[in-house]
Fold each of these.
Amino acid sequence: MSEKTPKTMGQQFGRRSWAEPWKIKMVEPIHMISREQREQAMVEAGFNTFLLRSDDVYIDLLTDSGTSAMSDRQWAGMMLGDEAYAGSRNFYHLVEAIQTYYGYKHIVPTHQGRGAEHLISQAVIKKGQYVPGNMYFTTTRLHQELAGGTFVDVIVDAAHDPTSLRKFKGNIDLDKLGALIERVGADQIAYVSLAGTVNMAGGQPVSMENARQLRELCDKHGILIYLDATRMVENCFFIQEREEGYAHVPIAAILKEFCGYTDGAWMSAKKDNLVNIGGWLAVNQEEVFDAARNMVVIYEGLHTYGGMAGRDMEALAIGITESVDDDHVRTRVNQVRYLGGLLTSWNVPIVQPVGGHAVFLDAKRMYPHLTQDQFPAQTLAAELYIDSGVRSMERGNVSAGRDPNTGNNRYPALELTRLTIPRRVYTQAHMDVVAESVKTVYDNRANASGLKMVYEPKYLRFFQARFERL
Ligand code: F0G
């Protein structure tokens, strides 16, 4: 424990310290290039951290997607790949793992989360229908729009307030949903798009109570609920910690109960499920399964591999089992909160409470002198990289994109820079280095001059847009 940490993890959360339930067996060297080289690299990347080469990055907090370290068991599983084109035994292991831990009936494998989003959107949404959900996610909403749907945000208001300390800021506001059903009619609602945790709100959780009440409301109107289960295991940790009656219930049991209130789920297995590539769609309805399983052969691959190699499916099946281990989830979320705790103690504005997968810096409060058109969160990500080689990403105006009907910018309430922590990859010392760099950038905040966008791609512009300094 270094001297500069204000409190150890144990002190911070009222118990003796504990550590990750693993030790490191293999390491990958990283290094920091010079400040001059980082300046140059940022200009060449058009001030977009997605356009940096990873060799030029020191600590990579761009995303927790596909960046986890696999266990020795998962690597052993990679050697057991059955690479048959059809009916690979690894597929059946995967199906069994999903049915055991998530509890859905029918499984369609996909290459990653957006492959599953594509299938469910095309299979269920009819042109002109609405898709209410607890805040948008970039790829999810785009697939819903491409299928002819209109996403409607029905998350609780607190989700849009980075200072609100509510325990379950990912909850659906059932009054907002009820009003939408009344206004457009239940027939015009394709399904409720429920995500746990809510990425764009800062990794905020949904309560079990909210899921239960949502089920009741939807049953009354015959509306389906599909879950974005990408970070649902982390959501279950917050239920265990914060919701009455769950303190002694294992994560695995909480997960099974929560999924039981929904009709199916899509999954980016690159997050919770601890693999570098993979995804799945799971549904209980035969007709939706039939449609998705037929479509997967057009876009992903045969319905028993969906774009994954046999070995990938084996590593994923094992990853699912490891992902619901209580000690694993607790150390994962608490590492994120350790970083958040340091920044909070230094008065750096971040989204509170700290969520499951990332610390979100509040660029609006950090750079009050910049307008949203000067891209404060994009600016902050660039400044942080230049300071220390730490790579983060923008989750604000650039990510929100344009309204497809009007072509206007969407200007979200939240203008955030995300420090996303890969699972089982970095140590507490890495978190200290990151926190100290954020503090330096925060201390120099008055000097930040903002950016202008000089190249804007049509879809998901945050991945490929280019900027210049103002
Ligand atoms: N849903 C959520 C909540 C996600 O965070 C992501 C991806 C997806 C769906 C799409 O899955 O990437 O496997 O196709 N999020 C990554 C991130 C990219 O950095 O947050 P995918």
Note: The pocket of F0G is lined by residues 63, 65, 112-114, 137, 139-140, 195, 199, 228, 230, 268, 270, 279 (CB under 6 Å).
Amino acid sequence: METTLWINARLAPHADPATLVESASIVTQGSHIAWLGPTHQLPVAFRQAATATHDLGGAIVTPGLVDCHTHLVYGGNRAEEFALRLAGASYEDIAKRGGGIISTVRATREATEDELFQAALRRLDALRSEGVTAIEIKSGYGLDLDTERKMLRVARRLGRARPITVSTTFLGAHALPPEYTGRANDYIDLVCNTMLPALVEEKLVDAVDVFCEGIGFDLAQSERVFQAAQRFGLPVKMHAEQLSLLGGAALSARYAALSADHLEFLDEAGVIAMRQAGTVAVLLPGAYYFIRETQLPPLNLLRKHGVPIAISTDSNPGTSPTTSLLLMLNMACTLFRMSVAEVLAGVTTNAARALGHPDVTGRLTVGDKADFVAWNIESLAELAYFSGLPRCQLVVRHGATAYRA
Ligand code: NIG
Ligand code: FE
């Protein structure tokens, strides 16, 4: 196995500004971290075994970033709808008029697998250029078996085309397709009894998500989807309490969900349930910003009860058309008043927990996969402070260079 030294780093193994290790090195063997710490303590055996040495030039090194909630694969875009919203229509108004998610469903059904792949690849590369080494990608713009399959196949293909870990999530219960108008329960039958089993059989599903909302699915329907996931031993997650409080987060906790996401309208009972279940709160400042939400997620309750908080792009054409996870750090600080330490944990350890992928820990410790980023910054706060400025110098994923500025 190749032994490689990565020397001259300022190491932030937990992306924590309080614990920076100066003049540090990382030793990788194959895809794993074999050692890390202050260079003067580097064991001689590793020095002798090394077949390559890379000087990181004093760069700050953090774990690779994890984007744990994205809808990266979709056809078309919704710039026209954005213009309508600017003229006064609300997100819910547009959805009720057959726009919104359903307009992306039309475009996604029409697109070929290759077209979806090429469009998503550009978005993926934008995220990679900011140090993202693991990402979740949801289906949910197909709402029929063939198109959901097409989306998930594209997600898998993205993970083969680029050095990045992709976790797939089946979001068949994202919206009611027009052909099922007035028959939501029948559609949930299709999701649970036809779509999910077929997609699991094809090994396309790592987790299952539901949009539990007035314009999505109710609690009983959401629970049926969770039960179907459970039959296949798949972890669940939920778009919960985004536009109203339905109790989806508490339901998610009952199913030991990896995460409940959005959560602007979450109440204390839901927070407590999440804490007890170990369910991560995934906050999505891009969506909060883009739909001009005014209800803030209950940060103080999440803190008070010690619920782990992750931050993600929610990259999607309707509510968060962004491919910048670093911008989300900035927004989480400015809009949600989160601290730099909180938002950095939110895109590393806590996001990894929400992702639930065995290869992804969101931290740098011996035995973990070597996924790390060398940044052209003086302090970790700069990651959340600047927007637009390229700061990512080098990305290593599974021990190999995955991106270089
Ligand atoms: O995460 N809330 C539902 N799903 C997406 C939006 C999807 C869309 O509008 O296309 C979200 O915000
Ligand atoms: Fe989403």
Note: The two ends are 27 Å apart (CA to CA).
Amino acid sequence: MAFYLDHAATTPVREVAVKAMVEAMTAGFGNPSGAHRMAREANRALDDARDAVALALGGKPGEVIFTSGGTEADNLAIVGSLESRRGIAVCSAVEHHAVLEPVERAGGAVVPVTETGVIDLAALEQVLAQAEEVAVVSVMAANNETGVVQPIGQVAEVVRRVAPDALIHCDAVQGMCWLDLAAHCADADLISISSHKFGGPKGAGALLTRNNPALGVLSLGGAQERGRRGGTQNVPGIVAMAAAISATVAERESQVPRVRALRDRLVDEILASVEGAVETGDRASKTVNIAHLCFDGIESEALLFLLESADVMASAASSCASGAQDPSHVLAAMGYDRDLAFGSLRLSLGYTSTDADVDAVLEVIPGAVARLRERS
Ligand code: PLP
């Protein structure tokens, strides 16, 4: 028995995705680059998946590059842009490391966020105006730790006005379940998604490249994906991702209010029962599934241990940062004091979440926090 409140880290794979995957691994196992009937069938399955990705992101099937997940899509967006055009890369301070690291490695600029975690548009304008040339500006759809949603339309307005030659990349990995990405990222040239964040398997993702701008190639050695990403495609993962997208988009309208109600009850009751608990960000501008809180006087790792003893699965910041010695770069960028940031907790809900999950957390949190505070 486990109460799973870590959907931002990864999601349970949907049955339709498992079914599609098994089919692609059995009857449909052909190599999509081949010429015979079985190969053509595998290629057709990829084309169907391309249609589903394009539809969800508001693009065209020919603009979809399949990747191994969100990290590769983000890397391709940044490094590919830098290889194909002049200028620097720019991103917000709260991006996932899959964006932040390639930007920083290339000597790019990082734009601060406000205390609610939203990109500072005036600072963005200043950075763009000061740069001689800008190749790419990357701002995420929703943050993986806090759930804070970024105003991509407003970001695009600034970029088009001040650095019109730059590509706009949006890491929409956390957005598929909760945002209409076709609308939210309508002004982005490049959009990253990752299958395992919305009920698909791990190891599949995509980068939508609107109007197919020139983009450097990171994976050389094959003509797959029209020469934009060499390597035999992960057909089972990709068709399962497409099945998960269709299911996610179809139920988004009903899941959003349902999950919002669960999340709001969770946060409100924690705030009411634990003195000194702080909710990060402005709830109205966050995805509906994330409860992100900080507790003073405790350390996340110890709290997670007590939660796990009660069969509650959660994380501190992002799962990639769990166990790290430094507090989250996202909370630091929002101005949280280091000690408070050390006591952060992310409870993330999803399509399988129920009242029982919320009840399980509420039963353990007040006592666990009190125990840890007594000890310290
Ligand atoms: N971008 C964001 C916002 C994420 O949350 C993650 C995963 O946590 C990634 C990128 C990386 O995606 P993947 O795990 O598919 O490499």
Note: Residues 235-273 form the longest helix (39 residues).
Amino acid sequence: MTLEELTTAVAALSLPKYRASQIYRWLHVRGAVSFDEMTDLPISLRSALQEHFDILSCSVEKKLVSAYDDTVKYLFRLHDGEIIESVVMHYKYGYTVCVSSQVGCRMGCSFCASTLQGVVRDLSASEILGQIYAAQRDLGIRISHVVMMGMGEPLDNYENVLRFLDLVSDENGVNISMRHISLSTCGIVDKIRLLAQRRLQLTLSVSLHAPNDTLRSSMMPVNRKWNIDALLSACRDYTAITSRRISFEYALVKDRNDSAEQALELAKRLKGMLCHINLIPVNEVKETGCRRSDEANVRAFADILEKKGFAVTVRRKLGADIDAACGQLRRSHIDQ
Ligand code: SAH
């Protein structure tokens, strides 16, 4: 609940207004998972809350810590038994959590493990938030950055994701600044246009992965609904409305989308756009048959884009020993 909603709920129980702020703090700042923990509330109030409300927290089903780099991967169990993945990465500037927005995914990208069995259901705003609270609680840390790059397509769960964004950036709550949040989409154009109207200060990441429609449609079914022209036109408008630079993600798959000609084609396509290009050597998922580009190829691809004047980064691989890439751990857990 937002503080406003909680205030209304508290008033309906004929309680003084300040109780709402107290409970809100327990939930969103201290990450309480039960009303019993709220020790500065009278016991009678705690049991009244118990009777009327649920705290739907994420419980740790499995936790893997990378021996290489402290990356932590969680499988969280939800109230109905569904399993989702989240990853915590430690950077110089703080802790970043990668959250899921759906159980599974229905976008069908050919290289991705999250989508292999389709979507089960959307996550509620509190289940997306719950991943952050559960990780903070388990590790005893404060998360400073969020990337919506876990399982699911955030813009296919638009209302709940926007509600999550409101809650997570609330200064009375966990208070993670919009500037520290990235939202990644495969390119749901009508929702990108809707999101632009909100003028949020978050970073929009767009999964492009191919420089032409033939190739992109073969890798990403969403491209058959909204092609690259439609997507880039929405991206240009997004930047014009929000003044925010878009980050394009491009997963490099060996012999598929990683040639010098394709780098040039990409440069041509993105010419003049205020953007950043993030190259991701693809994580190999057994079922997809996609192979990772060679390091030399990745470098050559990046060089071509840089020479054309683009800001380019190559994503560093973290948590290689713990199946940290999206969807892989949940699948092996369910198979077991
Ligand atoms: N549905 C959203 C966000 C989830 S995935 C989206 O499509 O953007 C976050 C990023 O990881 C996306 O760019 C996605 O295309 C990419 N991705 C998926 N599977 C991958 C893999 N096996 N290797 C590398 N990147 C992958």
Note: Residues 107, 109, 111-112, 149, 153, 184-186, 207, 249, 251, 280, 282-283, 285, 325-326 surround S-adenosyl-L-homocysteine (CB under 6 Å).
